[in-house]
Write a structure and sequence with these properties.
There is one protein chain. By secondary structure, the protein is an alpha/beta fold. Helices cover about 50% and strands about 10% of the residues. It has a five-stranded parallel β-sheet with strand order 2-1-3-4-5, with helices on both faces. It is globular and about 50 Å long.
């Protein structure tokens, strides 16, 4: 039975490796139960935890190892953004789907700053969510399409990335040698253009699993929380540039 105090509900039995492991953190208990029931009906999904708060998720993700966290977020809470970031720090490879109360610029920016791969209204039909989860688990970023109709948000994000990319911490940090292999640098350069794992695999003529392996290695080597953070750090150090041209290495196959 679900416990609203933040203790997770555990799905009975181990989840097969082939299933997408989903952790739910949704404040509306009735909606949470409906979403959980929807995911359970999908044979390729396994709900590994369900809590009412991001704090509860933050306490449990290290032991449940989800592929995707679906969590409600609201700009009225000052705690949710740092909690979302802490989840991504604890499980760097996790994908994040933000459920927001309003489809406005402020909540889209909140989702982006939390590192979310998708931003969905919290009143969306539960049946809509498994498809979103499959997309983000496959390495896609549906949130990028949200930006297409939001020029103000897109401009803000671009300014934020440019500011972070060219802000120097110290002369020594700018001279840091690139820790990535040529292929990893090439993958990160393509990531900076906003392409999904599937698109990267097609472009570089490698498998999606190989792309995922490269992404995992990139995040580990440069100590990045997520793909966006990795791009920003690489831009800051001059390992790649905004126009997609590498400055430190020439990528090879």
């Amino acid at each position: 039975m679900f416990v609203s105090s933040g203790q997770p509900y555990w799905q009975h039995g181990p989840a097969p490796e082939s299933r997408t492991r989903v952790f739910l953190a949704i404040g509306d208990i009735a909606y949470l139960q409906s979403v959980r029931a929807t995911f359970v009906r999908n044979v390729d999904m396994a709900v590994v935890g369900a809590v009412s708060t991001l704090a509860g998720a933050s306490h449990s993700v290290e032991t449940t190892h989800p592929h995707v966290v679906v969590a409600s977020m609201d700009i009225t809470s000052a705690e949710e953004l740092p909690l979302a970031r802490s989840i991504r720090q604890k499980v760097p490879n996790v994908s994040f789907v933000a459920l927001v109360p309003e489809d406005d610029d402020a909540h889209v920016l909140l989702a982006i700053n939390a590192g979310a791969a998708a931003c969905v209204r919290k009143d969306a039909l539960p049946e809509f969510l498994p498809g979103i989860v499959r997309s983000v688990h496959a390495g896609e970023y549906p949130i990028q399409y949200t930006l297409l109709g939001r020029s103000r948000v897109a401009s803000h994000v671009l300014r934020q990335v440019q500011h972070m990319a060219f802000k120097t911490d110290s002369p020594q940090s700018m001279r840091a040698e690139c820790p990535l292999s040529p292929r990893e640098t090439e993958v990160l350069t393509v990531i900076s253009s906003g392409k999904s794992n599937k698109e990267i695999a097609c472009l570089l003529h490698i498998s999606e699993q190989t792309v995922k392996n490269h992404v995992n290695a990139i995040l580990r080597k440069i100590e990045a929380n997520d793909r966006t953070h990795a791009v920003v750090r690489a831009l800051r150090h001059g390992w790649i540039t905004l126009n997609g041209q590498e400055t430190e290495r020439t990528a090879i196959a």
